[in-house]
Amino acid sequence: MKEFSLKYGCNPNQTPARIYMEDGGELPVEILNGRPGYINFLDAFNAWQLVKELKESTGLTAATSFKHVSPTSAAVGRPLSPALKRSCFVDDIEGLDDSPLACAYARARGTDRMSSFGDWIALSDECDETTARIIAREVSDGVIAPAYSPAALALLKTKRKGGYNIVRIDPSYVPQATERKQVFGVTFEQGRNDLKLGRSLLSNIVTKNKDLPEEKAIDLLISLITLKYTQSNSVCFAADGQAIGVGAGQQSRIHCTRLAAQKADLWHLRMHEKVLSLQFAEGVGRPEKNNLIDLYLTDGEAVLADGVWQKNFAVRPEPFPREEQEAYLRTISGVSLGSDAFFPFADNIERAFASGVTYVAEPGGSVRDDLVIEAADAHGMVMAFTGVRLFHH
C-alpha cells in the first residue's frame, strides 16, 4: 500500500488528509481492520518507536498506552503482584502471568486509567490472545504491533462492532535519517532523533550516593525512553518496570514535576488496602469504578456523601483523609525520575523527594547544577547527568 486516505486531519474541517511515503514507496504498515485517523497514526508511529526502543534497550517485552501524541505510561513485561493486578483491574485475567506482553500492557493501561480512556496501544511483540482479552474489554481506539496471533486478531476484530483499528507494522522498517514537516506552509527539516538510550547513559553519577542497582537503572531507562516520545517539557516517574506518572507538555519544569508526581502519588495510593477493599455496587463498570476511586482519593467527602455511596457502593467506604494518605506516601521510596531537560532549580528535587524519588536522570548543564546536586545529596539520592536533552515536538 503506497497511500492511505484519512477521513480528515486533526479536525473534521481539515480535508483532504492522507498518509504516504514521499519517495513513492510502500507504507511500512498494513491496516488489518478499521479505518485509523490522522491522530491515530500520530499516536501509532510514536508509540511503536517507544516500545521498539524500550525492548532494544532493556531486552524486555514492552507496551505503551498513548493519548494525544504522548504516552500515559509505558511498561516492560514483569509479573504483577496481587495488589497491582487488583489495582489494574486484571486480577480476573486467566493466564496473565504466562504472558509478559499482557503483563506489560496491563501495567501501562492500569497506571493512569483516566488518561488512558480511549487510548492507542503499541506492543513490541506479537499480540497474543491474553493481551487481546485485556484490550477487548477496555475503551480504546486501536493497536499497532508487528504481528497478531490468529486468536488475538479474531477477538480484536469483534471490538467496536467490528470497527476496531488494528495495524500491523513491519518491524524491520527503518525510516530515513532526515525528517520533515510543515508548519504554516513552511517546511522544517532535521535529523531524526535516532540516539539509542542505554545503560552507559547513566554512568556519570554526580551525587555522593553512587549505588544504582540494575533494576533501578532499568526504571530510569524506561522514564527516559518514555520522555523521548512525550511532548515537551516533560518529566516521568517510574517504578517496578513501568512509568507511573508522566507530566507532559508544560511550559515550566516544576509544573511537569508536580503533575507527574501527583499521578505517581495516585498510582501508589490505588494499591492501599482501603482502595483495594472498596466494594462497588453491582453493575458499576470499570470506567465508573476508576472515576470513583479517583474521586475517593481526591475528594473523599463527595464519595462518602449520602446518596452517592449508596448508589455506587455495596458497603460505605471507610474514610481515607488526606493526612492519612500523606503519611502513607511518606513511606514510599526507591522511585526513579527522568527529565527531558535539566532542572533549573532545586524545587524539582524537593517535590520529587516528597513522592518517594531516590534515583534521578537528567541532562545537567544548568548554571544551578551545584544547587540541584546539593539538594539531591541532602536526600541521599542517586543522580546521573546524561548529557542528553530529549525534547520532542
Strand and helix map with partners:
Layout: E1 3-6, E2 17-20, E3 29-33, H1 38-58, E4 62-67, E5 70-76, H2 82-87, H3 100-111, H4 113-116, E6 119-123, H5 129-136, E7 140-145, H6 150-156, E8 165-169, E9 178-183, E10 186-191, H7 214-228, E11 234-239, E12 242-248, H8 253-269, H9 273-276, H10 286-298, H11 300-304, H12 309-312, H13 322-329, E13 335-339, H14 347-354, E14 357-362, H15 369-378, E15 382-385
Parallel strand pairs: 6-7, 7-8, 13-14, 14-15
Antiparallel strand pairs: 1-2, 3-8, 4-5, 4-6, 9-10, 11-12, 11-13
Would you mind describing this structure in some detail?
This protein is an alpha/beta fold and 393 residues long. The chain has 3 domains: 3-174, 3-Layer(aba) Sandwich (Cytidine Deaminase, domain 2), CATH 3.40.140.20; 197-269 and 329-385, Cytidine Deaminase, domain 2 (3-Layer(aba) Sandwich), CATH 3.40.140; 278-317, no CATH class. The protein contains 15 helices and 15 strands. The chain has helices at 38-58, 82-87, 100-111, 113-116, 129-136, 150-156, 214-228, 253-269, 273-276, 286-298, 300-304, 309-312, 322-329, 347-354, 369-378; strands spanning 3-6, 17-20, 29-33, 62-67, 70-76, 119-123, 140-145, 165-169, 178-183, 186-191, 234-239, 242-248, 335-339, 357-362, 382-385. The strands form 4 sheets. It has a 6-stranded mixed sheet with strand order 3-8-7-6-4-5. Helix 8 (253-269) packs parallel to helix 14 (347-354). The longest helix is centred in the first third of the chain and has 21 residues, at 38-58. It is globular. The mean pLDDT is 96.
